[in-house]
């Protein structure tokens, strides 16, 4: 049984952000399954790395779109992202150093609460601002995708 299931209440009415949120939910579900099934440490570590990487990517996109529509609570939202990013990184780092130091139920409960309350609470606050400026948000989203693709290509090329 998944830790979190996508429901319409999670939607922020921006397709790319909804997709990102679905990916984050999927990664939390993979982490829950890996821990519950007693998967090797390397598997749990890989999922934690993917969760951290995707969190960073998603927050970058979300911040870009909030900036584009001049979201008035942008600075506060970015600070929340920084805190959440640091918390996910800390969980991953503690697991790498000492897997037994991470109490799986507590970590999974924290991550589930973190993601669901952030989406339904904080993220839903920007929905009306993005809806009013759909064209600007769509353009910023296209630009973010091109920038991210260019960065990935450059990283692969070395």
Automatic annotation (TrEMBL):
Matches recorded under PROSITE patterns: DEAD_ATP_HELICASE, HEMERYTHRINS
Gene3D superfamilies: Hemerythrin-like
One Pfam family hit: Hemerythrin
Coiled coil: none
GO molecular function: metal ion binding; nucleic acid conformation isomerase activity; oxygen carrier activity
SUPFAM superfamilies (alphabetical): Hemerythrin-like (SSF47188)
Domain Hemerythrin-like: 14-129
Domain of life: Bacteria
Keywords: Iron, Metal-binding, Oxygen transport, Transport
Family per record: Belongs to the hemerythrin family.
Protein name: Hemerythrin family protein
Phylogenetic classification of the source organism: Bacteria, Pseudomonadati, Pseudomonadota, Alphaproteobacteria, Rhodospirillales
